[in-house]
Amino acid sequence: MSTNMNQTSLDILQRLPEEFQYRELKGIELRTQRQSQEQRERTEAENQQWIAHWESQATDKERARAQYQAAVNRGQAVCAIASLILLSFMLIPGLNRMAERTLKLYEWTHSPATTTATTVTNAHPYSNKTTAPVAQAKVVPFRPLKQHRGPHFYDDTPTGSYDYVLERDGSTAVPIPSPCNGIIGRVWFQGRTGNLSTGFGAGQIVEVACDGGKLWLFGHLVKGSPTKQPGDRITKGEDIGIQGKTGRTSGVHIHNQIHEYSIGIDGVPVRGARITDRKLTQPLIDEYRDFLATGGDK
User: Fold this and answer.
1) Contact between 258 and 275 (Cβ < 8 Å)
2) pTM summary value
3) Whole-number Å distance between alpha carbons of 284 and 154
């Protein structure tokens, strides 16, 4: 019936004078353009609302971080005053031993690392400098995480990558522990969030350069969730961000790539060649997954 009506309308239109035919066709074209424009405006408005939501989340996180830093600064000021008081006690005969023990206790409890030192051997290719010896920090404990290794564990987009899911108490919105003691590299957002047809890129990315080891790339984190900035030190087991599904993905998971790296002149690790030989990378991934399952006790 619809086909007959369209044919009838076309027959009527063809019998009209050319001037009326032109007006009718022009009207159809204008209505089509107006409908397309309205659809584009609705889509743009929805996109702007979504962007505003995530920018609001990022602003709240920055505010919380500033408040945390202010608290840390106040704590450091108190520690400095305490140090001066302890030093003054050292000048009093008979209290030297007490002051010495107190200072040792203070240094131990406020030091982020033990005295076992390692040296990062990766150097910037255009610099004669290598990084200074870095104290090997204690592992930060965390609650063990379950892992789900699916059919895409061996991910070849790009070659040599790994995909798996972390879960705790039925939730996949979990913090991701650092695989090592090291330095944060780039923290950035790649691509656009969507499904396998509409999205692209690895979304929210955090890079962790391990002391004396390799650089780990973590992809698809929740946007704005990274806890560190480029160049910051990080301790093994410390949170780097929240597992998410930003970028091109069909669901929440971790995307890992392992790279060589060097240290830039600003002290920030520079990601190098991706290591595609799984004989070299899978032992690192398996060790990290064992570490996740034990909560840092292993």
Assistant:
1) yes
2) 0.55
3) 14
